[in-house]
Predict the 3D structure of the following.
Amino acid sequence: MWAVDLPMARPYSLAGGRSRYRRLDSTIVRLDTDEGIVGWGEGCPWGSTYEAAFARGVRAGVEELAPTVLGLDPSRIDVVYRAMDRALPGHPYVKSPLDMACWDIASKAAGVPLCDMLGGRTDGRVRLHSSVPSGSVSEIMAEIDIVREQGYSFHSVKVGGDPEGDIDRMKSIDARMADGEELTFDVNRGWLPAQAVAALDATRELRRVVEQPCNDLDQHLQVRRLVHQPLAVDESLVTMRDMLRIIDTDACEVVGLKLSRIGGLTVARRMRDLCMEAGIRMNIEDTGGTGLQASAVVHLAQATPEPLRRATWLCHDRLTRNPVEGGAVTEGGWAVASDEPGIGAHPDEVALGDPVAVFALES
Ligand code: MG
C-alpha cells in the first residue's frame, strides 16, 4: 500500500468557496497472487470535507481488511466483497481500492479488458465533463476557457454559494455557452431546501441539470416536489438502499456513480444495472485519483450504453503528478478504455517510492 501526494495544477473550491483544495492524498494498493498475477487499486477521497471519507481512513481500512482479503480467490469477487462486509460493515470507500484490485486480477486472469468483464465494450468513446470550481462569473469563464482549449464541451460548474449570487452566476454562465456545449450546475449540498426552491424557481427557464442541491436525500425530496428542473443526486448516493430509495421516490433524472463513495466497481455495477432498468442517467466517475482510478472508471463507463451513460469526470487532468502509465486513452473531452487485459494502467513503483505498509498471509 502506497500513500501518494497529488498536487493540483490550479487551486479548487466547492460550494461558493466554503471548501478549498490544493492537493489530494491518494492510496494505491497492489494485490499479489500465488499465480503471479498482480492487481492494482486506488482510493482517493476529495480531501476530507467533500463527503464522509478521508485519506488516512482509506489506509486504516485497508489495514483492517488485509487479513480478511489475503488468502481468498480474488476472481470470486462477490465472495471477497461479502467477506469484507462481514469484517467491516459500512465504510464503503475503504473497500473500493481492494475491490478494484480484485477486478484487475479477475479480468487479467480471464485475458480480457475490464470493460468486457463489466458487461462488454460499447461502441464509440466515453464523453468527459470538466469540473469547474466555484468563483465569480469571470473566474468561472476563465476556467471554462482553459478546459475548452483541452477539448471539453461538457462542463460541471460548481455553484452553491449565496443563492442570490448563484442565480446571477447560473444565468450568466448559461448565456455564455456555445452551441453544442452542455452544462450541469453542481450545488454540492450548498443550499437549504427553501434556498434551493427559490434559486431554481428564479432560473427555471435554463433547463439545466442541477446536482445535489441540498445536504441529504430528505431535503432533496422536499425540493424535488416544488421545482421543474432535471435534478441529479451525487453525494447522497452511498448505499444500495439509497439507490433503491432514489428509484422508489423518483428523486432525480441523473445520479453520480462515484466508485469509492459507493464501495467500488462491484457495487457500481449493480447500481448501474438498476439505473438502466429505471431509466436514470449516470455520471460514472470517482472522487479523485491518478490515471489508475481514471482507467477503471472509463472501463465501467465504456461498458454502459448511451444515453444512460451521461458523462465521466477524470481527476488526473487537474493534477501535476500522475505516476501511472498506460490505461484509458484520453483525447480532449473524450476517453476510450484500454484494450489490455485488466484495467491496463501501470503504476510506476519507482515513482511511488516506498510503500507505507506491506501485508502478507501468515504462514
Ligand atoms: Mg457532484
Summary: The mean pLDDT is 95. The CA atoms of residues 128 and 239 lie 25 Å apart. The pocket of magnesium ion is lined by residues 186, 211-212, 234, 256 (CB under 6 Å).
